[in-house]
Design a protein that fits this description.
By secondary structure, this protein is of the alpha+beta class. It has four domains: 98 residues, no CATH class; 165 residues, no CATH class; 120 residues, Rossmann fold; 198 residues, Adenine-n6-DNA-methyltransferase TaqI, Chain A, domain 2 (Alpha-Beta Complex). Helices cover 41% and strands 24% of the residues. The strands form nine sheets. It has a five-stranded mixed β-sheet with strand order 13-15-14-16-17. A four-stranded antiparallel β-sheet has the order 1-8-7-6, with no helix packed on it. A four-stranded antiparallel β-sheet has the order 2-3-4-5. The longest helix has 29 residues.
């Protein structure tokens, strides 16, 4: 084929693609069918109705609703999912199919979508679509169009290729590539968040905000503007930004914030909390009260309502971590259904929701100004990391600014003061700052500010550091209380630092207890934490396989309450996975913080006798022969361990506590013989036997005996026990 014929072929391909796309659109408009089909259980139909035109369309087969099921969200009557089992009959044949909220059933060119259901649970509403001719032609047209474009751009002697070979283009190509890279940085550097369709569903949830009811989309955009100066960030919508901060805070905490002073700090903190998300409407005495996940005084609500309020966002976070978008979408739809049922007439009408959505789409941002800001910050970070060789292991800009300021701006014997994340006191990633700055120089004071702002959960600490090599200097320790600053006292820096190089600022409040703990705790490493597998929903199965699989939500104190099944075993590192195929002690990786009746932590551990494979929301242990696994289970579940972890390991933190091996090693396990462990082992075996017979068995009396035995191991007095239990 000569060049002229080749070019004609390319042109004809392009013309044909336009024709097919246009023809397909016309056929879709003229021949496609869409409508709704309402069936009661056991009812059959041969047609469906287009409600817009009131036209009835015939089906080439009979469809019967064989069964309809509603799966409700635990603790509520809001639907988690609803499924229809359909029977298709034609030509003496019978075919079964299922539809669900995120599952489509197709047959003979007709697609059935689950659209709704009857309130009594015995009927289903299906959306039916059929486009046999138009859609295939449109797809074929787009395929030919892209084929023609590829031929055009990569064929020799075309105008485009001649233009690329022009000397002027070659000289400016580098600049063009550079500009493309710069313009694309925002897109490719976007931090992790949920897909746009999930974020859009999230934005359609209604909430109480600004003394009115509005879509969550409005809240998300307001705070995106406060953080970044406009309603979007790096091509992400406001809802995606909010979801990023809620579900992936570690990926977002280092993103540059454009605002300044108090507004900047407040906006930064607000994205770390769920407290403002008042999305749970409860009707009380004829009045609708909106609750957030961290609302206090919910004891008067029903158990189901309390479970929904306290557990909803935890479930969303698990789905986000697993990237299980289908389950997340269903869970968001459940909340919408709950709002519609609970708030009744207190919600915005669909017309008002559409009007506010349209208003929120108005964007008056200055993209070029913020593009320049992003480039400047990117260059600044590059400069500090690559040119100045400044490393900050936390990845937190607070650590970077502390080091830059102290090393370059503070004069000899000058003092630097900063407010930084509270995790600087106990987090392993902050060890370099604690050891090479706080411990090496003269730390003047440490102030635990905790929840510094009324509506913010993110915790912080403040410090003052004098630029001089530290000797026997005293550190003033205090914490922010409800009515002011409480001073703990002044202490030598060595007295505050633990063997783990964490800063245990509260141990000075309990000198007699700490002294007794230090006398009996083992100096040897007796336990080694093993994190479960980092796997997602691709490995979860509801159908039985050879291996059980559990997550953090599947266990409770002393009991494995559920599991799923492992699939795709061949895609795993089986040598790593099979280490869990043995009886073992399990503990939830995420440590729960509880406010009532007093602030405390709850470490939840159980015994897995079946050898279940676990995900990375659980930890297991390798134990030294000197410690019995049943003793370790009872000890781990004791009030003493939770009290010690709350005050000393996590410095009274209230969120973001992970029970990783770094923190496990700080537990002061008593150095006792196996025979001395036997009383606790006996009680644990009694608890496990009771739970095996009845998972709901009341074992509080046995657990109380274990608590008292643990206190006895350390020789604690009744008064000291009262301090631990805050009596």
């Amino acid at each position: 084929m000569n060049f002229k014929n080749f070019m004609n072929c390319k042109n004809y391909t392009l013309y044909l693609s336009f024709f097919l796309i246009s023809l397909g659109g016309i056929l879709t408009f003229t021949t496609a069918k869409q409508g709704h089909l309402h069936l009661r259980t056991g009812q059959s139909a041969h047609s469906f109705i287009d409600k817009k035109t009131n036209i009835t369309h015939q089906l080439p087969f009979e469809v019967t609703l064989s069964d309809f099921q509603i799966q409700e969200y635990a603790g509520t009557t809001a639907p988690m999912d609803y499924r229809s089992t359909l029977i298709i009959r034609y030509n003496n044949q019978e075919i079964r199919g299922k539809t669900a909220m995120n599952k489509v059933f197709s047959h003979k060119g007709f697609r059935f979508y689950q659209s709704g259901y009857d309130k009594d649970g015995w009927g289903s509403v299906l959306l039916v679509k059929s486009d046999r001719y138009g859609l295939p032609l449109v797809y074929a047209g787009y395929f030919l169009f892209f084929a023609a474009m590829i031929i055009y751009f990569f064929s020799k002697n075309t105008t485009f290729r001649k233009w690329l070979r022009h000397p002027a283009v070659k000289k400016t190509s580098f600049l063009g590539v550079f500009l493309l890279i710069i313009n694309g940085i925002s897109l490719f550097a976007a931090p992790k968040t949920v897909p746009k369709d999930i974020a859009t569903k999230f934005g359609k949830i209604q909430m109480y905000y600004g003394d009115r009811i509005c879509p969550l989309e409005t809240f998300a955009q307001d705070f995106t503007v406060k953080l970044y100066g406009k309603t979007t960030y790096k091509s992400l919508s406001g809802e995606q930004v909010l979801c990023g901060w809620l579900f992936y805070p570690e990926n977002w905490k280092n993103e540059p914030i454009s605002k300044s002073k108090n507004e900047k700090i407040q906006s930064f903190f607000m994205f770390q909390t769920e407290k403002l998300l008042k999305v749970f409407p409860i009707t009380e005495q004829g009045k609708i009260i909106w609750y957030s996940p961290d609302s206090e005084w919910i004891e008067h609500l029903s158990e189901n309502e309390q479970l929904l309020i306290c557990g909803y966002f935890g479930i969303l976070k698990e789905y986000a971590a697993e990237e299980n978008w289908a389950a997340m979408a269903r869970t968001l739809e459940q909340l919408v259904a709950f709002q519609q049922k609970s708030a009744k007439d207190g919600l915005l009408s669909p017309q008002k929701m559409r009007a506010e959505h349209l208003y929120n789409k108005i964007n008056s941002s200055k993209p070029m100004a913020y593009a320049n800001l992003f480039i400047g910050i990117f260059a600044l970070i590059y400069f500090f990391r690559k040119e100045q060789k400044i490393e900050f292991s936390t990845g937190d800009s607070a650590e970077l600014f502390v080091k830059i300021s102290f090393d370059n701006l503070v004069k000899n014997k000058g003092i630097l003061s900063f407010i930084i994340p509270k995790k600087s006191l106990y987090g392993d990633a902050w060890e370099d700052t604690r050891v090479n700055y706080w411990k090496k120089h003269h730390l003047k004071f440490i102030l635990d500010t905790g929840k510094s702002f009324e509506n913010v959960l993110l915790e912080a600490s403040a410090f003052g550091l004098k630029k001089e090599i530290s000797g026997a200097n005293l550190v003033s320790v205090s914490f922010l209380a409800k009515y002011g600053i409480n001073t703990v006292g002044k202490f030598l820096i060595e007295k505050l630092f633990a063997e783990s190089n964490t800063l245990q600022i509260y141990k000075a409040q309990f000198p007699s207890i700490i002294e007794k703990i230090n006398k009996i705790k083992s100096k040897d490493k007796l336990v080694d934490g093993k994190l479960g597998l980092a796997i997602g929903v691709d490995f979860y199965s509801d159908t039985q396989t050879d291996y059980e699989l559990s997550k953090g939500i599947d266990i409770e104190k002393y009991n494995v309450r559920g599991h799923r099944w492992l699939k795709n075993k061949d895609k795993l590192n089986w040598e790593n996975a099979k280490q869990f195929l043995k009886p073992k002690v399990l503990v939830q990786r995420l440590v729960a913080h509880i406010e009532n009746p007093i602030p405390h932590l709850k470490i939840t551990a159980c015994y897995d006798s079946a050898g279940i494979i676990i995900t990375n929301t659980l930890m297991s242990f390798e134990l030294n022969p000197r410690i019995d696994e049943k003793f370790w289970l009872g000890y781990l579940n004791s009030k003493f361990v939770s009290w010690y972890a709350y005050n000393f390991i996590y410095a009274r933190a209230i969120r973001g506590m992970d029970f990783y091996n770094f923190y496990i090693q700080q537990i002061p396990i008593p150095n006792i013989s196996l025979s001395a462990q036997q009383p606790i082992i006996t009680l644990v075996n009694q608890i496990l036997s009771a739970k095996k017979e009845n998972p709901a068995a009341d074992t509080t009396a046995l657990e109380r005996e274990i608590d008292l035995l643990v206190y006895e191991l350390y020789g604690l007095t009744a008064g000291e026990i009262g301090v631990i239990e805050s009596k």
